Amino acid sequence: MRFLPVLLLSAAALLGVATACGSHSDTAPVAADAAELLTNGFEQNIGWGGTQPSLTTAKAHTGQAAVLASPEVPFSYTYARTLDALSPGAVPHQLELSAWALRTAGGSTARLVVQLDTSPTDEKQVFYTALPLAEAVPTFGEWHQVRLPVALPASAIGSNQLKIYLWNDKGTSPTYLDDVVLRRVAK
Ligand SMILES: [Ca+2]
């Protein structure tokens, strides 16, 4: 039975490969990513906080829920949290936002926005960047993964409040967003 350990090792290797592939599927990662600061597929948000026009089950990349921006809903369901709360003990400066976006038509011209306000009570902007989805998503009716590198200024401090949202801009058709992940990028 000298071949048995080899077989077991092979099986373990195959399982390892399968697990590694699984972690890249469209579902939430199994293993916690130390650099991951937030992740949201919006499945648990439905019903909480009262009526929220941006939360929708009309389209979804995973599960049943996503968020939208449209002429009727100019700003999507918004993430807002101070840098201290987002990443206790170390203000993150290099970030990457990834998300899945779907444009319904040529008029889906929403922008994916990351902004930093002075504080939760002072909306004076410290930083702003936006990804035009009309450029990042070339086709309609299909989900595409988009990425937005975010380099916060060196002057950013823990009491600054980070916001993430879709802005409809001058869009005439809805744009959908799902499976948002914000990661700290190692320098
Ligand atoms: Ca979802």
What would you say this structure looks like, in words?
It is a single chain. The protein is mainly beta and 187 residues long. The protein has one domain (34-184): Jelly Rolls (Sandwich). It is 15% helix and 38% strand. The protein contains three helices and ten strands, in the order H-E-E-E-E-H-E-E-E-H-E-E-E. The strands form two sheets. Strands 1, 2, 3, 5, 8 and 10 form a six-stranded antiparallel β-sheet that branches. A four-stranded antiparallel β-sheet has the order 4-9-6-7. Strand 6 (111-119) and strand 7 form a beta hairpin. It is globular, with a radius of gyration of 19 Å. The chain starts with a helix and ends with a strand. Residues 1-31 have low confidence and may be disordered. The protein binds calcium ion. The site of calcium ion (CA) has 10 residues, from loops.
Bound molecules: calcium ion
Secondary-structure element string? HEEEEHEEEHEEE
Uncertain segments are 1-31
The geometry reads as globular
The fraction of residues in strands falls at 35-45%
Percentage of helical residues?
10-25%
Query: What Rg, in angstroms, do the CA atoms define?
Result: 19 Å
Give the count of structural domains.
Answer: 1
**Helix/strand class:** mainly beta
Architecture blueprint of SSEs:
Blueprint: H1 3-22, E1 36-40, E2 55-56, E3 66-69, E4 79-82, H2 83-86, E5 94-103, E6 111-119, E7 122-132, H3 133-136, E8 143-151, E9 161-167, E10 175-184
Antiparallel strand pairs: 1-10, 2-3, 3-10, 4-9, 5-8, 5-10, 6-7, 6-9
Calcium ion binds at residues 41-43, 60-63, 65-66, 178.
